[in-house]
Amino acid sequence: MKKLSLALASAAVLLSVSPQAEAEVNPWQQCGIGAMIFPDNGAAAAISNIIWDLGTTAVTSATVSEETCKGASVATAMYINENYEQIETDLAIGEGEHLNAMLDMLAPADRAKAVAELRRSLQIEADLPVVKKAEALYLRAIAFAS
Amino acid sequence: MLKAIRPALFAGLFICLQGFSFGAKATAEVTTPHREFAQQRLWLKLLQYNSDGVSEIKNDGFFFASTGRTDALAELNATLTAFTQQPQNICLFPARHQALVEAKLVEPFNYQHCNEFQEWLGTDSVQSITLVFADGYLKNPASFHGHLFLRIDSNNSGNGNLLDTSLNFGAVVPDDDDPVTYIAKGLFGGYQARYSAQPFYRHNLSYGEVELRNLWDYQLALTAQQAQLLAAHLWELSRTDYQYFFTSKNCAYYVARAIEVVSNNNLVDHNEWTVLPTDIVKRVHQPDQQLVHKISVKQSAQSSFQAQFHQLSQLEQTAVRALVSSPKQTPSSYEALTQAQQKRVLITLSSYYTFLERQQPDDPTPKQNKARVLRALLAFEPGNTLSVSVNSEPPHLSQPANLIRLSYRHYQQQGNAYALTLRPSFYDRLQPSAGKLPNSALSMGEVEIVAIDHKLEVEKIWLLNIEALNVSSTGLAHDGGMSWMIRTGAERRRLRASQPKLSSFVEAGIGKAYKQGHFTPYAMFQGRIHTQEINTDRHNVTLNIRAGVEFDFGQQKGYCEVQQPVSVTSSFNKQSLLTTCAASLFHTNHSDLHVMLSKQNEHVAQLGWSWYF
C-alpha cells in the first residue's frame, strides 16, 4: 500500500510539470542515467569512476552515449542524480553550495522564488529510491526555472 | 589525433580561418627568434621535456615533427607549419598557440571557436587554477599518501566550484587484476596512465562524503593569462598517455609537471625515486615559487558534522544527543531551546545523518531519521545559521616522508645502546597530523639497526605498519567506528628478554577510541603470529590486550599505554605487563626530538633525534 502511494505520488509529480518541461529530454527515461550509470546511489557510481589516488583505478567514462543525451539539461540531471542527498539537505536548510550549483545550472530568473517553490514542493520520503526523488526534483526544478 | 575533431568542425573552422593572416609562412624558416624561443623554459615545458631534454609523453600524436620528442626546435617549426597549413590544429594545442602569440611568432586566434576545447573547459572564463590535495586514506593502499589533482575554476563563487572541471591523473587498471598483479604492475611500470576530466562534484562526493577525506584547495597565484595557458595545456595533456609508476611517476609527479608550465622553477625531477603528493604541495607552497594565492579546505562529511557539533552550546549538544537517542520523540531538552537554537540543532543533525547515510547505505534508519530532521527544517525560514571553523592543519605543514633517526637508549640490565632508524615512508604516531588521518600511523620499509653490547644487530624491519584510531569526537552513535592496526615484519622483543631473536611476525588488532579535548583514550585487542622470540619459546601465537591514551598539545604529542601479552599454546600464559610512554617534545618541519620510557622484564629510556627529508 505504501509503495503504491509512493508510486502515485511520483506519478503526480511527473504529470504536474509544465508543457515546456515535458518537451525537454527526460534523462532518466530517455538516456537511462538512473539505471545504466547510477543505480540508486550516486556515491557508489562516483566511486566506480574516481578513486585514482596516485593513480590506480580504471578510468571509465560516465557520459552517456547518445548525442541527445549530452546537452546541458542532461548535465543538470546527472548533477542532481549524483548529489541528490546534499541538494535535498540544502533545500531543507534553505541554502548551500549544492543548491547554488543546481541553480547555476538551471539559471532561473528569480533564484529566491525558485528556492521557495522547491522548498514548498519538496517531498522528503525516506523510502523512495534516490533516483526517483532526483528525477522528480529535476522535473520540478526545470519547470520552475523555465 | 586529428580524428578527435569532427569533420563538420573542421569545415566550419577552416572557413572561419580563411581570412586569418599568420606570422609564420607555410614552411617555417629557422630564424634567430625561433631558435631562442625553442630553448626557452616555456616551450620546453609545453612539450613536457625533462631535464635530459626528452619529452615524457609517449603519444606520437602529441608531436608534429617526427623528432619532436627530442628536438624542440624541429617541433617548434613543425608546429608553426601545422598551425598555418591547418588552423584547426590550434584547437588541439591552444597552449602552444597562446605561447607563440605572446612571443609574437603567430597571430592571435579566438579560442571560442574551439568547440570541444570550450566544452571540456566547462566555462567561458577561466578565473584560476587550483591544486587540490585529498587527505590520506588508510583503507586503500593507493590512497595512503593522499592524492593530488587540478581544478579549472570559473567565476561561480557560491557553489563551491562543484561544477568546475577537474583533471585527474590515473592508471588504467583492468577490473580483473588481482592484488598481487596490481601491486607488481603498479610498482614496476606495468600500467598505462592518462589524465581524465570530471566535474569537481564527483571528487567532492567520492573523497569528502564517502571516504571522509578533507579536500585542501591551493589556489595558484596566476595572472588570467597564465591561468588560461595552464588550462589550455591541461587540455593538450588530456589526450596523452604515460607509463605509470606507483612511487615515482604518479599523480603527484604529473600534476607537478603540468604546473611547471607556469612556475619559475622545476617542482620535480624525473630521477626522483619517490614523489608524494605532500612533497609537491610543500614545493608549490615554498615562498620562492610564489605560486600559492589562497589556501582553503572543504571538510569531509564527518569533519563537517563534528565541527558543527562542537560549535553548539552545551544545551544544544544535549538536545542533539536526546534526538539521536529518541529520534521519533521531541525531547524536553529540544523544546526548551529558542527557535534559532533549534535550527542549529537540526542543521547539525542533518549533517550527522548525511554522514551516517553515506557510511551505512544499506541501513534505512539514518535515511528515515534524516527525513524527519529535514521535514522539521522546512518549517523554519531559509538560511544556514550555523557557521563552523576549521582547525585542521594544511598538508604543506607536514613533515617530509623520508626519515633518519638517531637514538640513544639506556637499558637497565643490558646497558647503553645506539640505534639508527631509516624509513622511506611515511609517519608515526608522534608526528604532526597535517595532511594525514589524525591519530594514525603509517610506515613502510622501516629498518632499525642497534649497536649494543659491542655488536651491531638488526633490531627491526617493519615492512608495513598501520595504526588508525578511528576517533569519535562527539560520542554520538557510529561517529568513529572501529580502530584497527596491522603490522608485519621482523623485530627483537628486547624488553621481554636480554637475548631476543629476530622474530618474524604478522599482527593485527581492532578496538575503539574516543577523543576528549587534547586526549584520545583507546583500547585494542591484538593477535600476533610469529616465529620464536626467545630460545625458550614454545608458542607462535600471542594475544595482546592494549589500552592507552594519546595526547596532542601541538608541539607536544605522545601517548602512554599498557599491554598485556598472553602466550597461546595449549593454555594461556600471561607474560609480564608492558608499559610505554613516548612523546615528541618539539618538532619543526624537518626534525623532532622524541623521548620514550618503556618497561617489561627490562627497562629502557630513549632519546631520539629525527630528520625528515
Explain what the structure shows.
Chain A is mainly α and 146 residues long. Chain A has one domain (26-145). Chain A is 64% helix and 0% strand. Chain A is built from 10 helices and no strands. Chain A is globular. The N and C termini of chain A lie far apart (35 Å). Chain B folds into 4 domains: 2-112, no CATH class; 128-298, Alpha-Beta Complex (endopeptidase fold (from Nostoc punctiforme)); 301-378, no CATH class; 399-612, Porin (Beta Barrel), CATH 2.40.160.40. In chain B, helix 6 packs antiparallel against helix 10 (224-237) and helix 13 runs antiparallel to helix 16. Chain B is globular and about 85 Å long. Chains A and B meet through helix 5, helix 7, helix 8 and helix 9 of A and strand 3, strand 4, helix 9, helix 16 and helix 17 of B.
Question: Could you list the spans of chain B in which at least 5 consecutive residues all have pLDDT below 50?
Answer: 1-27
Q: Supply the number of structural domains of chain B.
A: 4
Please tell me the total number of domains of chain A.
Answer: 1
Taking pLDDT < 50 over at least 5 consecutive residues as the criterion, the unreliable ranges of chain A are 1-23, 35-66
Question: Which word captures the global form of chain B?
Answer: globular
The DSSP helix count of chain A reads 10
Mean pLDDT of chain B: 90
Oligomer: heterodimer
Question: For the CA atoms, what is the radius of gyration of chain A?
Answer: 15 Å
The value of Rg of chain B in angstroms is 29 Å
* Main pleated sheet of chain A: none
Largest interface: A-B, 44 and 67 residues
Main attributes?
heterodimer, A: 146 residues, mainly alpha, globular, disordered N terminus, B: 613 residues, alpha+beta, endopeptidase fold (from Nostoc punctiforme), 4 domains, 12-stranded antiparallel barrel, 7-stranded antiparallel β-sheet, 17 helices, 21 strands, 28% helix, Lnb_N (chain B), DUF7843 (chain B), DUF7840 (chain B), signal (chain B), DUF3015 domain-containing protein (chain A)
